[in-house]
User: Fold this.
Amino acid sequence: MPATVNKQTACYHCGEDCGEVKIVLAEKQFCCEGCKTVYQILNDHGLCDYYDLNNNPGKNLRQSIRKNKFAFLDDEKIAGQLISFRNEEQTHISFYLPHIHCSSCLYLIEHLHKIHPGIVRTTVNFSRKEADIIFNHKKISLREVAELLTRIGYEPYISLNQLKEKKPRLPRTMIYQLGIAGFCFVNIMLMSFPEYLGLKNIETSLLHTFRYLNLALSVPVLIFSAQPFYESAWKSLQHRFLNIDAPIVLAIWVTFFRSVFEVLTNTGSGYFDSFSGIVFFMLIGRVLQDKTYQELSFDRDYTSYFPIAVTVLKDDQEVPMALPDIQPGQTLLIHNEELVPADGILTRGKAFIDYSFVTGESLPVLKEVGEIIYAGGKQTGGNMELLVVKEVSQSYLTRLWNQPNNQPTEEKGISFVHLLSRYFTYIVLTIASLTALYWWANDPVRIWPAVTAVLIIACPCALLLSSTFTNGNILRILGRNKFYLRNAQAIEDIATIDHIVFDKTGTLTTTQLHDIIYEGEPLSKSAQESIAALAAQSGHPLSKALARHFGRNSLIVQGFHEKTGRGIEGLINGDLYALGSQQFITGKNTHPGGTRVYVSREGKLLGFFSFRNHYRNAVNDLLQDLQSDFELSVISGDNASERSTLRNLAGKKTTLLFNQQPADKSEYVRQLKDHQKRVMMVGDGLNDAIAMRESHIGIAMAEDCNTFTPASDGILESAQLGKLNRFIRLCRANKQIILASFMMSIVYNIIGLYFAVQGNLSPMVAAILMPSSSISIIGLTYGSTNLVARWLKL
Amino acid sequence: MSVIILLLLASIFVAAIFLAGFIWSVKSGQYDDDYSPPVRMLFDDKPSQESSKK
Assistant:
């Protein structure tokens, strides 16, 4: 491999192959003018450290961004909704910059003030890929700031979503609660030492001081730190469901009030240390489990994809307008590579719409003037004009999204931990009442201490600890493997599934590669090169794939002519070559299914290339392996031309469905659910989003984690698809690990109960039992999850 | 014995200062982004180059 790498010259800016055309500046090679320009800007402002920190950190700028793309930022109304603060001198704005990926990015963006004096300060939040920019709006306008960022390769991503309320910052309350619980716990421990060590002969006044200080330190734990448990328990009681937090709150209160009682009546020192310790440990577990990935968003809806503003044609003037203000009857100017935001009729230009986003069909569709174009498609061939027939909120895509039965269902699974804790609580209450009964008969004075001791010891906190720590660690292991789950409940949902539905396009196949097969008259070397040169002239995905298939060369194409959606032709070395649809080349239309590109020379048909989606390398092994444990379905928006290929890959039992619209996919998932299946849906685009929401667990695939994924329960980096079977196994191990550590905690409980039923649980025993059981449970869960992960080679 | 109580109060006071420090650090957003700050401090500003150009 190194030999081939050496032959190419990598662009100094973006690292891509420079090809034959040499663009050289200061002994550095660039792949395109765009990259060179960025280098010039940085060089002029002494920012070339950008290139020293990382090799080729830039973004390829071969595709230039249209000049007035950010014109809408001049509109006061739109801008006002984006900026967070403004006074006489300064404006504060936060931009989402998807390209931020390394320390070079950080360096460059934070030194923006060197490029333009109007920028006052820039602060990057790396994990959220956001830059907070403060600029002097007398020297530079908001639009110019956005254009400046775009010029150096960091185009801000501004979507309709940002018009809604600002997303709340990460909640920090639990961190405060944890800090305070830790502080109180440690100090109470410290002051309980005399008691542990049995220093009976110390002054009673001193002993009292210790006890009252402990009492005082416990109050914040009870009132502030334990709040998450109260909230959760209260919520569950309102729903008439006893979750694990209810018995925990009971145990916490019993422990606290018995301790207060002991201190006030001067009969003992109470269990403040155990009380605060258990709250502290349980909070750690919660924080670990709830640690979500801030940089990922699991709740995207269509508004995150739609642009914030579009260009409206008014009296032949291009006016930027905020998307919600678009009215039927207006004419929109849709530029190349822009999303169609509302249903409309094509009035001018050629529409070549890429609906992969909505339907999953990987190839663009040609639309003629007068045809209706539905929202969600992406224009790929030049500019077009569109007469809006429906408001954005009424358009096809939006309605699809907002269908009442597509709203997320709340009946997602209830953790087995809660069910387990319920049995546990019943057993504990039985033991407590038996103890009460026994002492009532024998020594009524000891009922109270014995019963409270039973309740204190038998708190299901061990169960909570084992589940939160196991979940937390599994989330961490999965995250390390680029599989990000929304929350801990998703682990259990994954463990219970028995049917997996895969989307085909973009999920099992990759959109970046095609398998190309040629049929027809054999092509000579020169003919191949000519076809490659011709294909390289066009931006159509099939042409690009052909050009890539044959490799780059430096042949010159004369008289190049493209008929959007039909084909291309041009003169190479005096021969007229044409590439395109059957209709375009032969004038006939006999082959409906499958994707073919016909080729002719001097009007004579040579043959055709058929295109197959390229399946990801791991797909074969993955599907073979999953077959033994799960029922599988492959569902596709494409036509059925690949049925046989897919059948070989997926095996006999797998259900294959083609020509499925988004609503069909969701309907299919619903049918599976009606047959009592637990369904996992693995998809990629917005076209699968509804089905993903309908399923028990929806996994979104992303080429890398910067790309946008629809709402889902988990995001999987596409290169890791082959590990999906092992991910599911790890999630299944979750339950066993929790049960095992729970069994161990029961052993501790039995020891504790042995003391408790006798009514003589000394603070010393409680103080040893509580931390040792907690810490050994934490150790066991961490150790065993890591062991399972290593065994699964994750 | 009052010495012990004095020490006790002093130790809790010191611990409380650390608690306050912790709360302040969380509040000021120091844990929000754990990548930028350690990298940011390594960037060199090159004032010499800037001024020599001007």
